[in-house]
């Protein structure tokens, strides 16, 4: 491979505010919630609601939530994604140049593609870190990458990592990770609960495979663990009907039944606000408030050894013919 015929790998996750303050959260939410793939309401109706009610109230509340999970390395999502890219670079060595980007906020996808190209990458694998395909996540990464290429005279060749909801490498990594999490507890939970990010119910009827792929993941993981895995969908936003059952209602039901529970979020490649605050902090409170006994939150794959082995496997497979 010559210096101007290198292979690039760009890990992409959702994005996160630059700081846990209302102004930064507002900037982030304005970009995120203006994406037509995320909120599928005509812009002429949606923008006044977003600019009016939502962006005047939510940033303050969300900033407080972000402040509870912020670390010295910054937002957990940003720090973990950076660590994943660094470890994947170490695993791949000279075979490829690895970098990371965020769909919303920084580092931007376009600038990251330019940086890889400037370093000699003429072939780039874009890897959206979403195990389950969703138009609001997977497709919008491809949209952003392709929109950037539309501005270039000299384009790199692009490949996209497909979703991996039932891939053996992913299920295997989840199994190791969940079993290690359970082994570290001082109780044996009655219920294993897999919480996936929610979506409006209507996207399912419109043909989005997200719901079915979440169910596939949970079924395959349950088979691998030899233990039932319950499924719930979290983070409802807005007034429309979202996928059910809802995580908060499920935790309240399990709590009221006097169960003990271990909850985890296999749809998130990295721990973030939605897992560390919504599940580990607020979910625990909801569960205990309903009368639940023991509760444990098990971390995402993050940059753990099984998580990195999985990423390397998926990426190497997708680079076949290029490497
Ligand atoms: C209509 C609104 C939203 C849709 C649709 C949606 C889909 C979706 N999101 C993720 C992953 C993440 N979402 C995160 C935060 C977050 N999500 C929404 C709204 C929708 N998400 C909001 C308003 C927020 C911001 C936080 C808040 O104000 O509550 C995050 C965490 C980001 C972080 O900084 O830590 C992730 C990750 C998926 C996978 C998904 C569809 C499948
Ligand atoms: Fe979200
Ligand atoms: Fe949330």
In short:
The chain has eleven helices and eight strands. With 323 residues, it is of the alpha/beta class.
Ligand kinds: ligand L6N33NVT, fe (ii) ion
Number of alpha- plus pi-helical segments? 11
Structural class estimated from helices and strands: alpha/beta
Largest sheet: 4 strands, parallel
Spatial extent as radius of gyration: 20 Å
N-to-C SSE string, H for helix and E for strand: EHHHEHEHEHEHHEHEHEH
Mean pLDDT value: 97
Approximately how much beta-strand content do the residues carry? 5-15%
Gross morphology: globular
CATH topology of the domain at 168-297: Rossmann fold
Based on the coordinates given, report the CATH architecture of the domain at 168-297: 3-Layer(aba) Sandwich
Range of helix content? 40-55%
Detail the poorly predicted runs: none
Give the termini distance in whole angstroms.
Answer: 9 Å
CATH domain class name of the domain at 168-297: Alpha Beta
Strand order across the biggest sheet? 2-1-3-4
The tally of beta strands, per DSSP, is: 8
Explain the layout of strands and helices.
Blueprint: E1 6-13, H1 22-32, H2 43-69, H3 76-92, E2 97-102, H4 109-118, E3 121-128, H5 135-149, E4 157-160, H6 168-183, E5 191-197, H7 202-205, H8 210-225, E6 230-234, H9 247-256, E7 261-264, H10 273-289, E8 295-297, H11 305-318
Helix pairs in contact: 1-2, 3-11, 6-8, 6-11, 9-10
The structure holds the ligand C=CC1=C(C)c2cc3[nH]c(cc4nc(cc5[nH]c(cc1n2)c(C)c5CCC(=O)O)C(CCC(=O)O)=C4C)c(C)c3C=C and fe (ii) ion (FE2) (2 copies).
């Amino acid at each position: 491979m010559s210096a101007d015929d290198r292979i690039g790998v760009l890990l992409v996750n959702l994005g996160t505010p630059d700081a846990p303050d209302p102004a930064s959260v507002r900037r982030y939410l304005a970009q995120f919630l203006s994406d037509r793939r995320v909120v599928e309401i005509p812009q002429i109706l949606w923008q006044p609601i977003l600019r009016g009610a939502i962006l005047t109230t939510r940033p303050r509340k969300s900033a407080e939530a972000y402040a509870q999970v912020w670390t010295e390395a910054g937002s957990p999502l940003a720090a973990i994604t950076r660590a994943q890219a660094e470890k994947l670079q170490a695993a791949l060595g000279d075979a490829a140049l690895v970098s990371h980007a965020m769909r919303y906020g920084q580092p931007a996808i376009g600038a990251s593609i330019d940086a890889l190209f400037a370093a000699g990458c003429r072939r780039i694998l874009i890897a959206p870190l979403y195990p389950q395909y969703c138009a609001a996540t997977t497709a919008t990464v491809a949209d952003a990458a392709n929109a950037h290429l539309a501005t270039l005279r000299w384009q790199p060749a692009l490949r996209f990592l497909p979703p991996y909801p039932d891939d053996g490498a992913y299920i295997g990594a989840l199994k190791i990770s969940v079993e290690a999490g359970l082994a570290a507890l001082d109780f044996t939970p009655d219920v294993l609960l897999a919480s996936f990010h929610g979506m409006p119910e209507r996207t399912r009827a419109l043909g989005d495979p997200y719901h079915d792929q979440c169910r596939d993941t949970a079924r395959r993981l349950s088979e691998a663990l030899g233990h039932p895995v319950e499924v719930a969908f979290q983070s409802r936003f807005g007034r429309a009907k979202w996928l059910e059952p809802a995580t908060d209602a499920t935790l309240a039901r399990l709590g009221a039944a006097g169960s003990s529970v271990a909850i985890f979020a296999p749809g998130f490649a990295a721990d973030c606000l939605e897992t560390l605050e919504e599940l580990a902090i607020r979910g625990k409170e909801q569960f205990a408030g309903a009368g639940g006994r023991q509760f444990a939150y098990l971390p995402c794959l993050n940059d753990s050894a099984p998580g990195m082995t999985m990423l390397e496997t998926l990426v190497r497979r997708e680079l076949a013919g290029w490497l």
